[in-house]
Amino acid sequence: MISSFSQIEELFNEVEANLEVEVHVFVIGGVVLLRQGMKDATKDVDLIAETRKEFNALQDTLKRIGFKAKIPTKEYEHMNISQIFIREDFRIDLFYKTVCKGFSLSKEMAQRANLIIRLKHLKLSFCSNEDVFLFKTMTEREGDLADCLSLARRNLDWNVILAELKNHACASGNDVWITWVGERLDLLEEKGMNIPVMKDINKMRDDYFTACEKKLRDKPKKSSK
User: d(Cα 45, Cα 192) in Å, to the nearest integer?
Assistant: First the structure.
């Protein structure tokens, strides 16, 4: 488990010392909450690389400094984890662009992110609390629901979350993830969370199911001959 942000700084200083090209990665998970004091420890470091060159450079560097690759388990079945790397207390979930089917780091998310570490070759940016919340509603990992509750207590801008969902729905062409988000938000409401945009989320979910039903009705039937 990682219990101090100084451990993250030490890790990425080590990564920097072994990098040969410039890499800019975005953090979307528990490390963001750890630095803000919203959780005492985290076991995952969730990173997104925007380009294949940056992904490959980071992957190769992690291997050089002793990280071992691991196959993603069932709790990650909704997610597009490109690779998992483990070394002692560190577990790095590395994504290339897409985090979930059709759901990826958008231009707006990158603009909202805060640059936290800037070294010669390495830049590390933390995604906004709104975007971290959104990514966490798409997983079934233990603890992510509690993290969502902690984030919501920091006065999230729900209009930003809703706008990002709508933008992705228009751009992705594959919005099955809206059902996963909806399910997680249902659970959060059951735990007492007030979600001001829930009516809009439900409409998006209903529209998705209606579209699916229409496709089934319109699908040509096979001939019995």
Answer: 28
